[in-house]
Amino acid sequence: MIETFAALSDPNRLRIVSLLREGPQPVGTIAERLSLNQPQASKHLIVLKKARLVEVEARAQQRLYRLDPAGLMAVHEWLEPYRRLWDARFTQMDEVIAQMVREETQDRKE
Amino acid sequence: MIETFAALSDPNRLRIVSLLREGPQPVGTIAERLSLNQPQASKHLIVLKKARLVEVEARAQQRLYRLDPAGLMAVHEWLEPYRRLWDARFTQMDEVIAQMVREETQDRKE
DNA sequence: CAGGAATATTCTTTCATTGGAATATACAAG
DNA sequence: CTTGTATATTCCAATGAAAGAATATTCCTG
């Protein structure tokens, strides 16, 4: 998880991830569109790959990078226990549970 | 966004955020429970506060830190454009759209 | 198998981050 | 207004990440 967040905490890597929403791209295109030197692009992509945020497909001497759901899903799942902090659905659920507790308490008195 | 991910890319800060799921805690307790020196705990908490991942309430000489929904919600929203990569609901929606496109094409032929 | 194209790796320098130790600040109690 | 408690701040050393330049690797083409 730390590796994932670390990968996402660099401006250029965040731009790469965002760019790849358009679809798979070779390293050269990524470098060009983001005004990066080719070695920097390669290095950033490798960091993203280790974090499972991108995956790569070899096409001849090209490397086609695309988004990898695994890393992004990991972020989603990490967020899960915190979702109740802002998600209205959990507030409703909490109320339902509170009501059940009240009813349970009521049962005991009877 | 980068500040948020950077804040979450440190092991001890991640442990602090996780610990605060139990509820608000003063700095001393956080430091003790995570075996951190008090200054380190303070420093990490300040980083988390700048990223709006925690908020603080002063109670006498104590500082009560709690989770701040803002930073976590920011992560949730950043994730939004990527959700279709793994969320089955988007797959269904994509199918519905594909069907609509097919029907539209059909209309043109008639 | 020589040449060229696309990408990866290595090396170096620079800059930011982390932890530890010491110290400073804020506040409550007496 | 002094003391004790809780937290923040500063300084320093060590570690790690990022960019740039140069070079190496891989693979297609002829």
List strands and helices in order, with pairings.
Two copies of one chain form a homodimer.
Chain A: H1 2-8, H2 11-19, E1 25-26, H3 27-33, H4 38-50, E2 54-59, E3 62-67, H5 69-79, H6 88-109
The first copy, chain A, binds a DNA duplex (30 and 30 nucleotides) through α4.
Task: Please give a structural write-up.
The structure is a homodimer of 110-residue chains. By secondary structure, chain A is of the alpha+beta class. The first copy, chain A, has a domain at 2-72: Winged helix-like DNA-binding domain superfamily/Winged helix DNA-binding domain (Arc Repressor Mutant, subunit A, Orthogonal Bundle). Chain A contains 6 helices and 3 strands; from the N terminus they run H-H-E-H-H-E-E-H-H. A 3-stranded antiparallel β-sheet of chain A has the order 1-3-2. In chain A, helix 1 (2-8) packs antiparallel against helix 4, helix 2 crosses helix 4 and helix 3 (27-33) packs across helix 4. Chain A is rod-shaped, with a radius of gyration of 22 Å. Chain A binds a DNA duplex (30 and 30 nucleotides) through residues 6, 10, 12, 26-28, 37-44, 46, 58, 60-63.
Summarize the structure.
The structure is a homodimer of 110-residue chains. The first copy, chain A, has 110 residues and is an alpha+beta fold.
If interface size is counted as residues with C-beta under 8 Å from the partner's C-beta, which chains form the largest one? A-B, 22 and 22 residues
Largest sheet of chain A: 3 strands, antiparallel
**Number of DSSP strand runs of chain A:** 3
Shape of chain A: rod-shaped
What structural class do you assign from the helix and strand content of chain A? alpha+beta
Question: Can you write the helix and strand succession of chain A as a string?
Answer: HHEHHEEHH
Assembly classification: homodimer
- Write the CATH homologous superfamily of the domain at 2-72 in chain A: Winged helix-like DNA-binding domain superfamily/Winged helix DNA-binding domain
Number of helices of chain A: 6
Write down the CATH class of the domain at 2-72 in chain A: Mainly Alpha
Mean pLDDT of chain A, to the nearest integer, reads: 90
Strand order of the largest sheet of chain A: 1-3-2
Q: Roughly how much helix do the residues of chain A carry, as a percent range?
A: 55-70%
Q: CATH topology of the domain at 2-72 in chain A, what is it called?
A: Arc Repressor Mutant, subunit A
Strand percent estimate of chain A = 5-15%
Low-confidence residue ranges of chain A: none
- What distance separates the N and C termini of chain A? 50 Å
By CATH, the architecture of the domain at 2-72 in chain A is named Orthogonal Bundle
Radius of gyration of chain A: 22 Å
